[in-house]
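Researcher: Before we compare anything, I want clean individual predictions. No alignment, no superposition, just each chain on its own. First chain goes here; please echo the sequence and then give the structure tokens.
Model: Echoing the first chain and its structure:
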Amino acid sequence: MTETLHYRLPWQSSSVYPGAHPGQMIGAGQLFKRHEPLIASPDPRRIDLRASVLDPFSSYRVRVYQQQSSVNVYLIADMSVSMGYADKQQTLLRFLHTAANSAFGYGDKFGFIGCTERIEQRWLLPACQHSGRVSALAKQLERLTFTGSAIGLQNAAAYLSVQRSLVFLLSDCHFPLPHLRAVLGSLQGHDVIPLVLWNQDEYATLPNWGLISFQDMENNANRTLFMRPALRQKIMAAYRQRQHDLKHMFRAFGSEPLFITERYSAQTINRHLQQRAA
């Protein structure tokens, strides 16, 4: 069964193409927008006699309606080495299919921007409505071993549509906060929905006692620690503080993040989307 995202926009699309979202254009629709002179909208079927009688210049007034419009939906994905840990890569692939199928179901276009240390052409999918291209991209990503850092995220905005778009930002955010600030600053012209992938095995399943070897997947640095209850609590507190700092950063740019710490679920994401649209 195909999973579907039910996203609603809290803003009006400027696209001229008909779709499923509130738009700035006038045309075929059910929601009354304003009156216009007949000469500006020459459709006698929509003449409003009452408004015409009340017009001080004795001209015919026509009712015009808000057109439902389409929007471009993008997935900007962190493809650094830390995103290859545990099931993060599979979560990325599942969300890629879910987001693309949902966009096509709404009549929207879908695009993908994969980011490592730089943005390569093979991991770029311009906004389109071709499910075959999405499937081909997903097969390539499934065989890929994620490497490097996510510094390329800072350049992703250059590959987005000029018009305001709906952007899903998928990452584990295991990089410095100034980097994240630069990424969010470059995306301010778009509606950004951050999805933060954290695997609980990274911090919640640490033992109280024993020798543990840690590896920083971003720079390959290794460190061995003697685990004890006090150190375990310190690591847990550091993760809680990191989550607080990330939330504060996202909210400063008008975005509410969703932390995905358990199994991927489209229902969890849909609840988040409903809350932001409420």
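Researcher: Okay. Second chain, same rules.
Model: Second chain and its structure:
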Amino acid sequence: MTTNESHTQTDRLPEHSPRLDWIKLAPDVYKAMIRLDTAASRGVEETLLNLVKIRASQINHCAFCLDMHSKDALAAGESAERIIQLAAWRESRHYYTAREIAAIELTEAVTVLGDGYVPDEIYSKAAAVFEETELAHLIAAITTINAFNRFGVSTRMIPGHYSPNA
């Protein structure tokens, strides 16, 4: 019996219940978030955007967003290997481009805000590889996914049911 065969769907723990359906209860907020996400995303290449969304969602422990953005990335042609390695990118830098590393570092700095600001060194690295307009959109995209993560985590959105292009 293989590992996959020994753990069937019936062996899994049941899904938790969401706390509330914020999308249904605050549709104007959700629509505004979608508009913001769309506007921010226009200036960021899809591959990079997917990595940013996945990395922020990993940091914020948003299982719903991890499910969604990993599936979106795979559907867009991203490799499972790069998605898996993203949590350990410092040890797996060779999987990513210099631009991707700069975006990942910036994502971490904006997401965590450890000392209350984004360090100049990290910002400078990103500014060196992105044009100003791209950088503005990248920061907007990072900010937007962080907001979505907070909705997902605080309302306990349930991962596993998202399907790309649905």
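Researcher: What stands out in the second chain?
Model: The chain has a mean pLDDT of 93. Additionally, The chain has one domain: 24-153.
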